[in-house]
Write a structure and sequence with these properties.
The chain is an alpha/beta fold and 373 residues long. It folds into two domains: 2-191 and 356-371, Rossmann fold (3-Layer(aba) Sandwich); 209-351, 3-Layer(aba) Sandwich (Rossmann fold), CATH 3.40.50. It contains 13 helices and 14 strands. The strands form two sheets. It has an eight-stranded mixed β-sheet with strand order 3-4-2-1-5-6-7-8, sandwiched between helices. It has a six-stranded parallel β-sheet with strand order 11-10-9-12-13-14, sandwiched between helices. Helix 1 (21-31) crosses helix 13, helix 3 runs parallel beside helix 4 (146-158) and helix 7 packs across helix 11 (330-342). The mean pLDDT is 94.
């Protein structure tokens, strides 16, 4: 079974997780099954001198070596598109691909849809970012951007299967496209590595610790999280919120200071994948305040570590915890946090069967074989 992944970015080597541990883990495990010949075409990242091997997978780089920038100029994107198509053609001519899987349905999905149509290879596409986001107040989501929306629609039209990671996204497809694309959907969440994330005994110093792991983007709604914390602080003055994630402009510190939460918020910055379990094990409750998520791995990793989860109703959250509120409802979020502080017991049924890495690997392998002509 020869599978081509088309993705905007991947990791640099077998030791790199680079904020995409779920892709690292899935690619590793799929390639090691001995049944999947996995080939990964990375449009923009990493930027290295040459293609390379990743466990038993092959990684083909499509961007010319140059300056590492967060935003890729349009001319470089066009060059990457062309190089991806050239490298795909060469590999497909050598040994034909059975399935193309676009990791995300935007730019990588669009290129995958062109390759799928040109070479008559079945396409599966995964939704993993803001493809179905539409939040005008913060200018977030592909549905607000003309070309990105076109890319997603084109990808959905060409795809044999649209893969979602949550019921939340499955519902949005039904909401926006009704029967046309909803009939194509299948849910296969990206999975959590149970060898890394598992419950452990917490050493407590008496402080109630909340934890949030998310980059300081507007869609993560940290200000709502801090507003909820301020309410919780009224009853528990010593409550501590540990925030992990990039905060390049230090905006979160300013918000915390203005809300008189300097002693209650600890901003730890980016956390390496290997250190996340320990951070979770030292915490009491995981809290998410996002306005939109396609799935969210941090919520699942917290659950696998045995933490109660309080969250807005986004991504996969409602499938694992009853402690859910609507986005922006910081007062409701505070009430849920207070309730869980006093009633911390959790009941995560069938968590492994539904959201583990091994379950995810089996799900994607089954999908690929079902698409093979």
């Amino acid at each position: 079974m020869r599978v081509a992944w088309i993705t905007t970015g991947f990791v640099e080597n077998e030791q790199d997780y680079n904020g995409a541990a779920f892709l690292h883990n899935l690619a590793k495990e799929l390639s090691l099954t001995g049944k999947i010949d996995l080939n990964i075409f990375a449009l923009y990242y990493p930027i290295r001198n040459s293609d390379f091997s990743f466990y038993n997978a092959n990684v083909f780089l499509c961007r010319d070596k140059g300056e590492k920038t967060t935003r890729v100029p349009k001319i470089e994107k066009l060059k990457a598109f062309m190089k991806c198509m050239q490298k795909f053609k060469k590999e497909h001519t050598r040994i034909k691909f059975d399935v193309i899987h676009s990791i995300w349905s935007g730019e990588s999905g669009y290129i995958a849809s062109l390759l799928s149509k040109k070479y008559d290879v079945p396409l599966a596409t995964s939704i993993g970012g803001g493809e179905l986001g539409e939040i005008p107040e913060i200018k977030y989501g592909s549905r607000l951007k003309f070309w990105q929306k076109k890319f997603v629609n084109r990808t959905f039209k060409q795809a044999k299967v649209i893969v979602t990671g949550s019921d939340y996204i499955t519902y949005k497809i039904k909401q926006y496209f009704a029967y046309e694309f909803h009939v194509k959907t299948v849910k296969i969440p990206f999975g959590v590595d149970e060898k890394v994330f598992f419950p452990a005994q917490k050493s407590s110093d008496g402080t109630i610790k909340l934890i949030n792991i998310s980059t300081a983007f507007a869609v993560k709604a940290h200000i709502d999280l801090f507003k909820a914390l301020k309410i919780v602080k009224e009853k528990y003055p010593n409550v501590l919120l540990e925030c992990y994630g990039k905060n390049v402009d230090s905006s979160l510190q300013k918000i915390a200071d203005e809300m008189d939460l300097k002693e209650n918020v600890k901003l730890n910055g980016y956390i390496e994948y290997e250190k996340i379990p320990d951070a979770l094990h030292q915490s009491d409750i995981f809290v998410l305040s996002s306005l939109y998520e396609s799935q969210n791995m941090a919520v699942l990793e917290a659950a696998f570590c045995g933490l109660p989860v309080v969250s807005t109703d986004v991504g996969v959250a409602a499938e694992i915890t009853p402690h859910i509120v609507k986005p922006h409802d910081y007062e409701g979020l505070a009430k849920k946090i207070l309730y869980v502080m006093e009633n911390p017991a959790v009941d995560y049924r069938n968590l492994s069967e539904r959201f583990s890495l091994s379950s995810s690997v089996k799900g994607f392998a089954r999908l690929y074989y079902s698409l093979k002509k």
